[in-house]
Specification:
The complex is a heterodimer of chains A (77) and B (148). Helices cover 44% and strands 3% of the residues of chain A. Chain A has 77 residues and is mainly alpha-helical. The longest helix of chain A has 30 residues. Chain B starts with a strand and ends in a 9-residue tail after the last helix. The chains are: A mainly alpha (77), B mainly alpha (148). At the A-B interface, β1 and α1 of A face β1, α2, α3 and α4 of B.
Chain lengths: 77, 148
């Protein structure tokens, strides 16, 4: 297989009559990614750093989610 | 057949592309299990806390650290990809961005791991019977303390 140096990066013409679906899908992945970074990383930090999953139980509520700030390691009775 | 070459030329960015796909699929698989496990809360306190008790040991804590690593690495690598794609000069700084992503990952992951591990031992020793050591907390399949 012969290999030739390619020089036309970014200059391929889009197919005539094609839709922009791929472009929008590509852009959606970037924009939704920005939101997901905040949501997913925030969820991880709340559950594993600010609180601890060892404290999870059926009755856990938002008051249990401040371990780091209160210095309390657990809230059980 | 004439090959025009591949977009991905086998260097760091290509391995990061592969890494992003692998962590993405792994996190998606974990997410499905996570939703099922969390949905057990609908079945009442006994079943939900019974399921949670399975996770409350040191082996799962190591797994949680790995999960945190996958989430952070995928998130930070995703921000790198967004920067390369949407910043007009992004592709001129790919090496710098690779190094920056790695340094940011280490800078976030190391203190996070420290907190997750020390918190585990603090809570384990606090809730366990007197005389329990860190080694006990590590090797014991399930802690001898209850959630209540």
């Amino acid at each position: 297989m012969k290999s030739v140096k390619r020089t036309d990066w970014g200059r391929r013409t889009p197919p005539i009559g094609g839709s922009n679906f791929e472009l929008y899908a590509w852009f959606f992945m970037r924009v939704s990614g920005l939101f997901l970074v905040l949501l997913a990383a925030g969820h991880m930090f709340i559950m594993h750093v600010f609180n601890d999953t060892l404290n999870l139980d059926y009755d856990a509520d938002e008051r249990d989610m401040v371990m780091v700030f209160t210095g309390k390691r657990h809230f059980k009775h | 057949m004439v090959s025009t070459g591949s977009v991905y030329k086998g260097r760091t960015s290509m391995w990061l592309y592969l890494f992003h796909r692998i962590t993405g699929v792994a996190l998606f698989g974990y997410l499905l299990l996570h939703i099922i496990s969390t949905a057990l809360i609908l079945a009442g306190p006994e079943i939900y806390e019974g399921a949670e008790a399975i996770y409350k040991n040191f082996y799962f804590r190591l797994g949680e650290v790995g999960l945190m690593a996958a989430v952070l690495a995928h998130a930070i690598n995703g921000l790198r990809i967004i920067t390369v794609d949407l910043w007009s000069k992004g592709s001129n700084y790919q090496k710098s961005l690779n190094i920056a992503a790695l340094l940011i990952f280490i800078g976030v992951f190391v203190p996070t791991t420290y907190q997750m591990i020390t918190s585990y031992f603090d809570i384990c020793i606090e809730k366990s019977s007197a005389g329990t050591t860190i080694v006990d907390c590590m090797v014991r399949p399930l802690p001898d303390w209850k959630t209540k």
